Amino acid sequence: MLIGELADRTGLAPSRIRFYERIGLLKTVKRQPNGYRHYPPEALMVLNLITTAQQAGFSLDELRTLLPADLADWDHGSLLKVLQQKIFDIEEMQEKLAQSKAQLQQVLTEIEAKPGDMDCATNAKRVLSQFGLEKG
What we know:
Elements: H1 3-10, H2 14-22, E1 30-31, E2 37-38, H3 41-55, H4 60-66, H5 76-112, H6 120-130
Antiparallel strand pairs: 1-2
């Protein structure tokens, strides 16, 4: 299939498809005598894998090492290891985000509890001192 059809079927811009080819993620491209790129049906699956993996948090560098030149050559053990590590990384990130959210909610609660007769700058100092964030 030509790049226009592949772009339509994947929802990716042709420039994005050429980028994936240039950086080595899309390896199954053949040039026709007229110079046009011809993509086999597997290219659709590879592009869908790339898109899904990026949405799951994989970087392009990670994908470059993960995707074999031929999809028939996947190493089951390596694939499982990489996926398990990514799940672990996401769980760690979720914990850090939950902690950050809780801290921000505490600060917000304290800022909203500003006494009516206190100006904003004094309230800020009060809140910062409660959290040990004031500058000495």
